[in-house]
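To the team - zinc ion complex, inputs and output below.
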Amino acid sequence: MSAPCPDCGLHDEGTLTCRERLNSLLFIEAEVPGAARGLPHFYAVACFNVQHQRTMKLTDAAVQQAVTSLDDALAGRVTIQDLLRRGRHLSRAGTLTAVPGTGTLFAPERWSMRITDALGATPATYVDIVTAWARQVVADAVD
Ligand SMILES: [Zn+2]
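Output:
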């Protein structure tokens, strides 16, 4: 058995890294009309980023902003266009990328749904599953 993922705490006997699992999920997404340019893509990538702060080299501020953006999107307070603008603003402000070795805002044990749970998706269930993942990340983050 391989070591658990140091970021999200995933225990899995598979040989894929979590980053490779995200790529697999995005292949499923590619089969869903409109998903890659809409909120489903944001949900998948933001959930992955929040749960993989070190791998993705994100600052605490960027991770906290991703949780806030997930919550705003789920509640219908923002559109995908608003989120893209927000991301560009953060990128310009230089608040997104941390130096390697930065700690994690959230402990790996916190998460009750991870990338492998989302990988059960088919093109027919993809939107529902990544939306459920987003809701769970927000709920786990504020606990
Ligand atoms: Zn992981």
